[in-house]
Design a protein that fits this description.
It is found in: Cytoplasm. Keywords: Chaperone, Cytoplasm, Stress response. The chain is α+β, with helices and mostly antiparallel strands. It has a domain at 156-214: Head domain of nucleotide exchange factor GrpE (Nucleotide Exchange Factor Grpe, Chain A, domain 2, Roll), CATH 2.30.22.10. Helices cover 61% and strands 15% of the residues. It contains six helices and six strands; from the N terminus they run ααααααββββββ. The strands form two sheets. The chain has a three-stranded antiparallel sheet with strand order 1-4-5. α5 runs antiparallel to α6 (134-153). The protein is elongated. The termini are far apart. Mean pLDDT is 78; it is low at 1-11, 35-44 and 48-58.
């Protein structure tokens, strides 16, 4: 009986020692899972400020966009300036065409009137100083003056280069005659007057030109 009473209190002590030993073994540190390690490495790489590829891609995209927009802006400015210049040139050409049309609208009509002026001048030359037909001559002179005044108001100018150097731009040489009293290539006589309208030649003068005596 004593032996049983002595060993009975020892059982709880033994069980407590065993449980303490199991707890000690259970709290020993273990290696972390592979997934945790991989997640930590990814986070470390993302926090790394020296990641050059990310930094380059983050800076080059805005720069490329800015350069593209600047190029498009420059192209748009050039197109606008070109369109403005074309508009100004078109307006100037239109104004010039209108001015030419205004100045030379009567060109054909005046060309039809020039033979009338020529006939009146021939009539005066044929009449000469005949006193018997003095009234007729005066009438022809007044008619010729009215014609020439109307033509002058419209910008018509007569070309009568007698005694002047021959100008092939405004005169047409019908013949050449020897004349010792004049310089060579000088208009000796005008067979038919020339006319120009606002500086544009309507008809060249038909003239005789001098040449050196042989």
């Amino acid at each position: 009986m004593r032996s049983g009473s002595l060993t009975r209190p020892d059982y709880p002590l033994l069980s407590e020692a065993i449980m303490a030993e199991e707890k000690t073994e259970s709290v020993q540190p273990t290696d972390p899972p592979e997934e945790v390690l991989e997640t930590g490495e990814a986070a470390a790489e993302s926090d790394n400020p020296t990641n050059e590829p990310d930094a380059i891609s983050g800076e080059s995209a805005p720069d490329a966009t800015i350069e593209r927009l600047e190029a498009e802006l420059a192209t748009a400015r050039e197109d606008a300036l070109r369109a403005q210049a074309d508009s100004i040139n078109a307006r100037r050409r239109a104004e010039q065409e209108v001015e030419k049309a205004r100045k030379f609208a009567l060109e054909r009509f005046i060309g039809e009137l020039l033979p009338v002026v020529d006939n009146l001048e021939r009539a005066l030359q044929a009449a000469g100083g005949d006193d018997q037909n003095r009234a007729v001559v005066e009438g022809i002179e007044l008619t010729l003056k009215s014609f020439t005044d109307a033509l002058s108001k419209s910008g018509v100018e007569a070309l009568n280069p007698e005694g002047e150097p021959y100008d092939p731009q405004t005169a047409q040489a019908m013949s050449m005659v020897e004349n010792a009293d004049m310089e060579p290539n000088t208009v000796v006589a005008v067979m038919q007057k020339g006319y120009q309208l606002n500086g544009r030649l309507l008809r060249p003068a038909m003239v005789m030109v001098s040449k050196a005596a042989s």
